[in-house]
């Protein structure tokens, strides 16, 4: 990735294996190296190099510098929440970014996930009902 990031910048990436899933991170510099703070699925708050972060993701967009604090302050805030456990419904990557920037900016994919689960459930019920009706007529 040849893009130049700025500290406190919030980025959005697409997961390579699941292109309908987005992931968010926050840029921070440490000893002139660039890192991305993020909250990966089932892992919890993490800090990765840019190259590690983009091994299975690709850049979609930047929301600009949403944290106007020093790298030290950003890392201190990260350290204060790094032991929180990942939760799809309570503390996912969007929730992590919202906590880090200090206000609600990113809406979680929870609503979309619940919609997909509901539609899947409805389709399963319809399929099962159809199978039952076919057996009754046979």
Kindly describe this structure.
The mean pLDDT is 89. The chain contains 4 helices and 5 strands; from the N terminus they run ββββαβααα. 38% of the residues lie in helices and 25% in strands. It has 138 residues and is of the alpha+beta class. The chain has a 5-stranded antiparallel sheet with strand order 4-3-2-1-5. The chain is elongated.
Through-space gap between termini: 60 Å
What pattern of helices and strands is seen along the backbone? EEEEHEHHH
The rough form would be described as elongated
Main sheet specs = 5 strands, antiparallel
Number of strands: 5
Write a compact overview of the structure shown:
By secondary structure, the chain is α+β, with helices and mostly antiparallel strands. The chain has helices spanning 50-53, 71-81, 93-101, 110-137, and strands at 9-15, 22-30, 33-38, 46-49, 57-65. It is 38% helix and 25% strand.
SSE topology sketch:
Layout: E1 9-15, E2 22-30, E3 33-38, E4 46-49, H1 50-53, E5 57-65, H2 71-81, H3 93-101, H4 110-137
Antiparallel strand pairs: 1-2, 1-5, 2-3, 3-4
List the main descriptive attributes of the protein structure presented here.
single chain, 138 residues, alpha+beta, 5-stranded antiparallel beta sheet, elongated
